[in-house]
Amino acid sequence: MHATIAPHDHTSAAAPARIGSWRVVDIVVASVLGVAAGVIFWAWGLAWETVSSPLKVALPGMQAALAAVWLFAGVLGGLVIRKPGAAVYTSTLAAVVSALVGTQWGGFLTIEAGLVQGLGAELVFLLFLYRRWTLPVAILAGAGAGLGMAVNDLLLWYPGAATEFIVIYTISAVVGGAVIAGALSWFAVRGLAATGALSRFASGRQARITA
Questions:
Q1: Tens of pLDDT along 119-148?
Q2: What is the pTM of this model?
Q3: Residue 172 is assigned to a structural domain of this protein
Q4: Contact status, residue 183 vs residue 147, Cβ threshold 8 Å
């Protein structure tokens, strides 16, 4: 006697992710996202001093809001792949690519930052057991990446900073992460889904259904 398994909709926002269920296409797409993000990170690094200087002068610490551009890889990877480890993998790979192309912050520290930032997003997805992929969750994941960035930067780059700077930097990183890495990544996934590029992923099918 064979058990009958009732079909279920994998496109649901609450569809569970199975541990270790990465497919070849998941690895390939996560890698493409990581490499593309790494090139963007490198380019943002070239423009960093120019774009951040006004904020540094106006209110020291607020530049962390613009640094949130370096946070989107993990959130985007997590939202697209929807598998455990996707946020950490994509964020770390992006940092590796950025470091290999060339960065003024040093290769090891760049990769370490990517790992920490990806972990910040990953922990939020884990908190929801990889079952919720809504805009609020994406915003929280971006904020988590921002918090990871703030803690890492304050420990490594701004030791002994004044309390006011620490507070401003942390708030700016979290808010910037929530908006740039979180909300914008969520809308980016919907945009990609509309083109059919994510048809092999639950993220693409769900976005097209709810559009």
A1: 999 999 999 999 999 999 999 999 999 999
A2: 0.86
A3: yes
A4: no
